[in-house]
């Protein structure tokens, strides 16, 4: 037992007593090279000469400068290397690069593709491209004057509190004050520019967009402030942990603001679209506005979430692929819903009817009230509502009575067989005049003719067209037409027949004929027709 305890004590002493001198320079794999570089540039194991051995083909002084600048760039951009994800295989080959597959490894393909490793003479070094571009990348990350600012800070300013130096706290306060002032100025400037742009949109919109533009100018100004802070935050030269936290927070804030800005842009565009479509004849365009609004907002939020996931290191390609597979599974499980959605798009593309049209098809007849994502609502004459799936509606034969140029009306008037020919002719002429003078009828195309002998009446065909396509107006027009025809018949003394039988008994004692008494005086008939004409004129 004593031997076991002694062994554990010696083992722990050997582990905790290990120093930087025990860590050797190892360039056998991407993991070993990056570990060597970063390890010897840490404060407790600092040895820039050893770190510089990760640079190939340069003098010691130049190699040290390059190695230090690579570390500073990584710290300045807040990029923490995940050591667990680094390849330990000495024969590692890059399979994600757009160039040919070769022995290279890019630390941050999206954020910093300029810095990568490559295999030279069996060992892994920072690439030739990295050596050539690192100075330009350094200038992009650290604005001019960064080194000067740090050099003029007094010693007291370098004292730390919670891993942050005192002068950096002052710098944070300075950034906040300047950011607030800059936000105020930019908000006014952007709102002024948007007001000038509003004059262009006002050609399509009726109402002012000032409230919406005000909502748009504030996040836009804040976006610019966040971007400038992200660019110049490197001036404060925080350590990598603080930089990573601040930059990640700024990036998250930017994405949230971008989502908000694009949602407001969608609202502005939909508002302009609604104002524009309100002046068009098509009412189906009005119904498309809420559907477009929901669809565009869902796309904006989805893209924003994908962008947000990249900040946390999630591979969006995997997410999209998973969403595609999941979407396919959902689509297979809900084929009817997908069919209805496709039917919706077909309806909006083909436009077989408009909102308010009177349609007939599939045993349903009524007015189209609403076209939704899945179904269409049709209100029948009895005010009941039919909900028809759009997949079915896009396949059946639809008689769109709302697309008629005119509403045709046809009926037959039956008058008594004993009506004199003079009165029949006068009645036909009178009905023609009524149609010509009626304000809701098409005067260029109509027919009023004595067309046949029915079982119990002489038949007069009335065929005309009403100008209005609305069902209610059509009924009102029919009412006025019918009432005027009845008045004409009453004034002329023309009686309408009804199904009846008349038994004629010749030479029946003391019985008179059943024929009616008709007024056939030409002057009186002309006066009646003139009165009908004057009635419409008044």
Account of the protein in words:
InterPro entries: LSM_dom_sf (IPR010920), MS_channel_1st (IPR049142), MS_channel_C (IPR049278), MscS_beta-dom_sf (IPR023408), MscS_channel_2nd (IPR006685), MscS_channel_C_sf (IPR011066), MscS_channel_TM-2 (IPR011014), YnaI-like (IPR045042). With 538 residues, the protein is an alpha+beta fold. It has four domains: 22-141, no CATH class; 160-332; 354-403, SH3 type barrels; 407-537, 2-Layer Sandwich (Alpha-Beta Plaits). The protein has 16 helices and 13 strands. A five-stranded antiparallel β-sheet has the order 9-8-7-6-10. The protein is elongated. The termini are far apart.
Biggest beta sheet attributes: 5 strands, antiparallel
The general outline is elongated
> What class do helices, strands and sheet pairing give?
alpha+beta
Number of helices: 16
- SSE succession: HHHHEEEHHEEHHHHHHEEEEHEEHEEHH
Number of strands: 13
The Rg value, from CA coordinates, equals: 44 Å
First and last CA, distance: 126 Å
Beta content comes to 5-15%
The helix fraction, in percent, is 40-55%
How many domains? The number is 4
Give start-end ranges of low-pLDDT stretches: 1-20
Q: Which strand order spans the largest sheet, edge to edge or round the barrel?
A: 9-8-7-6-10
Let me know the average pLDDT.
Answer: 78
């Amino acid at each position: 037992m004593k031997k076991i305890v002694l062994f554990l004590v010696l083992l722990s002493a050997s582990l905790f007593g290990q120093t930087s001198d025990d860590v050797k320079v190892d360039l056998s794999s991407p993991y070993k090279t990056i570990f060597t570089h970063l390890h010897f540039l840490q404060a407790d194991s600092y040895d820039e000469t050893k770190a510089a051995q990760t640079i190939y083909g340069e003098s010691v002084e130049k190699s040290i400068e390059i190695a230090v600048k690579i570390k500073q760039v990584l710290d300045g951009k807040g990029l923490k290397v995940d050591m667990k994800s680094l390849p330990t295989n000495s024969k590692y080959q890059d399979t994600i690069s757009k160039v040919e597959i070769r022995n290279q490894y890019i630390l941050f393909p999206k954020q910093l593709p300029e810095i990568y490793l490559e295999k030279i003479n069996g060992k892994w070094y920072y690439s030739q491209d990295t050596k050539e571009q690192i100075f330009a990348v350094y200038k992009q990350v650290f604005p001019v004057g960064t080194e000067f600012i740090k050099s003029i800070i007094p010693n007291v300013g370098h004292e730390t509190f919670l891993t942050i130096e005192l002068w950096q706290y002052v710098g944070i306060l300075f950034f906040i004050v300047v950011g607030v002032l800059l936000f105020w100025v930019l908000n006014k400037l952007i709102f002024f520019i948007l007001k000038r742009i509003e004059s262009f949109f006002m050609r399509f919109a009726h109402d002012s967009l000032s409230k919406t533009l005000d909502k748009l100018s504030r996040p836009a100004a804040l976006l610019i402030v966040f971007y400038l802070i992200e660019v110049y935050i490197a001036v404060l030269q925080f350590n990598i942990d603080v930089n990573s936290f601040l930059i990640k927070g700024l990036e998250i804030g930017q994405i949230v603001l971008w989502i908000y800005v694009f949602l407001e842009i969608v609202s502005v565009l939909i508002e302009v679209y609604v104002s524009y479509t309100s002046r068009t004849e098509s009412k189906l365009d009005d119904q498309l506005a809420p559907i477009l609004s929901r669809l565009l907002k869902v796309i904006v939020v989805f893209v924003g979430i994908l962008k947000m996931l990249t900040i946390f290191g999630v591979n969006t390609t995997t997410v999209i692929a998973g969403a595609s597979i999941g979407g396919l599974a959902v689509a297979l499980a809900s084929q009817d819903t997908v069919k209805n959605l496709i039917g919706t798009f077909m309806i909006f593309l083909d436009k077989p009817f408009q909102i308010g049209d009177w349609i007939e098809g599939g045993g349903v007849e009524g007015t189209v009230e609403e076209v939704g994502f899945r179904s269409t609502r049709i209100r029948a004459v009895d005010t009941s509502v039919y909900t028809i799936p759009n997949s079915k509606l896009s396949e059946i034969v639809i008689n769109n009575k709302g697309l008629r140029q005119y509403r045709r009306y046809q009926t037959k008037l039956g008058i008594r067989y004993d009506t004199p020919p003079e009165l029949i002719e006068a009645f036909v002429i009178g009905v023609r005049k009524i149609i010509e003078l009626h304000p809701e009828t098409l005067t260029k195309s109509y027919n009023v003719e004595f067309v046949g002998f029915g079982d119990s009446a002489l038949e007069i065909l009335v065929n005309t067209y009403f100008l209005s396509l609305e069902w209610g107006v059509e009924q009102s027009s029919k009412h006025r037409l019918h009432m005027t025809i009845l008045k004409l018949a009453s004034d002329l003394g023309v009686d309408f027949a009804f199904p009846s039988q008349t038994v004629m008994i010749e030479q029946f004692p003391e019985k008179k004929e059943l024929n009616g008494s008709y007024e056939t005086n030409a002057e009186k008939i002309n006066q009646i027709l003139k009165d009908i004409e004057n009635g419409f004129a008044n």
